[in-house]
Amino acid sequence: EETNEALEPIRIAESASHSDMLWDISLRARIDAAMEAGEIYCLYQPKIDRASGSIAGVEALVRWHDPARGFIEPLHFVQQCEKAGRMEHLTRYVLQSACSAGQLLHFRGTMIKMSVNISATLLGDMRIVGIVRNILQATRFDPRFLVLEVTETSRIADLSTAAAILSELRALGLNVSIDDFGMGAANFETFFALPFDELKIDRLFVSNMLKDPKARAIVSSLVAMGREARITIVAEGVETPEEVEILNEIGCDELQGYVFSRPISLSKLLEFNENREEARKANMV
Ligand code: C2E
Ligand code: MG
Ligand code: MG
Ligand code: MG
């Protein structure tokens, strides 16, 4: 009796992790089919230009809606993609969608930037340069409007290889951004070692600005640094009008967050942009 009771919690714990493992294995096995079936797609979140109030650009954020299981958490399936060795494939798919969307926006006269997240694990191999070049050619999207946000910089195996690859990418005419700055390994060491055109201040600092003067000082120091080093500073995760006000005072270049818009479909984005431009013009006269 005693032995059974003692074993019970262990058995439950084991079966829970076992089913998690099975779920992840089936997830990895379904990734390619899901892309083909159109279950994986991008939403676009606006980034607002502080000076003009217009949309400066959008960030493509991947989504997976499985018809049987519902939405699958992006960060989780991105990690599973990495484990399944399908990161390059997913990135190609997202880049293709995002550059096509960007080209469509430009064709309609909406000259905004398109940001795409690039996992640091892809910065160990020059192949990514060819992939990006081919997609730019195929979609005819103007490279000067493409921004690659390097995520998970903790996973950069070799900084000098990554620096060489990012230089090649920049030579295509595009811009490179460091994502989630201030968190984990997205730190000053990475920032100094790699050629960045843009820095995204992690949501942590933005959400603490109101209650913690240290967080506000960090944000304003980064903005000052960006001005001097000619690096675009973007605040992520802006959720309240009070945060917008502080970021305006500080002079942060671009603002992104739920206070303006959640990630939305391309057609909603076109609508959002039209409404915003109309409101801007109405306020000017
Ligand atoms: P990220 O690149 O830092 O993207 C910002 C995340 O914050 C997005 O979550 C976005 O929906 C969320 N967000 C935006 N504004 C707000 C806000 O005001 N408040 C809060 N609380 N959250 C906000 P999402 O879409 O779940 O993506 C999570 C992460 O997954 C991304 O973080 C990025 O690291 C990764 N990811 C997403 N799409 C891709 C992709 O295509 N490729 C790669 N490699 N990673 C991706
Ligand atoms: Mg990002
Ligand atoms: Mg980010
Ligand atoms: Mg983030």
Short description:
This protein is α/β, with parallel strands linked by helices and 285 residues long.
Give me the Rg, rounded.
21 Å
Number of strands: 9
- The poorly predicted ranges are 1-13
Ligand identities: ligand C2E, magnesium ion
How is the main sheet built? 8 strands, mixed, barrel
For the residues shown, what is the average pLDDT? Answer: 91
Strands ordered across the widest β-sheet:
1-2-4-5-6-7-8-9
- What oligomeric state do the depicted chains represent? single chain
The ordered string of helix (H) and strand (E) elements is HEEEHHEHEHEHEHHEHEH
Ends distance: 82 Å
Strand content: 15-25%
Q: Structural class per helix/strand content?
A: alpha/beta
Classify the helix fraction into a percent range: 40-55%
Protein name: EAL domain-containing protein
Domain EAL: 24-277
Organism: Qipengyuania soli
What's the topology here?
Blueprint: H1 2-36, E1 40-49, E2 55-66, E3 70-72, H2 74-83, H3 87-107, E4 113-119, H4 127-139, E5 146-151, H5 159-171, E6 175-181, H6 188-193, E7 198-201, H7 203-208, H8 213-229, E8 232-235, H9 241-250, E9 254-256, H10 266-284
Parallel strand pairs: 2-4, 4-5, 5-6, 6-7, 7-8, 8-9
Antiparallel strand pairs: 1-2, 1-9, 2-3
Helix pairs in contact: 1-2, 3-4, 4-5
The chain binds ligand C2E and magnesium ion (MG) (3 copies).
Please describe what this structure looks like.
It comes from Qipengyuania soli. GO terms for molecular function: cyclic-guanylate-specific phosphodiesterase activity. Residues 24-277 form the EAL domain. Keywords: Membrane, Transmembrane, Transmembrane helix. This protein is of the alpha/beta class. It contains 10 helices and 9 strands. It has helices at 2-36, 74-83, 87-107, 127-139, 159-171, 188-193, 203-208, 213-229, 241-250, 266-284; strands at residues 40-49, 55-66, 70-72, 113-119, 146-151, 175-181, 198-201, 232-235, 254-256. It has an 8-stranded mixed beta barrel, surrounded by 5 helices. Strand 4, helix 4 and strand 5 (146-151) form a beta-alpha-beta unit. Helix 3 packs parallel to helix 4 and helix 4 runs parallel beside helix 5 (159-171). It binds ligand C2E and magnesium ion (MG) (3 copies). Residues 59, 117, 149, 151, 179 line the site of one magnesium ion (MG).
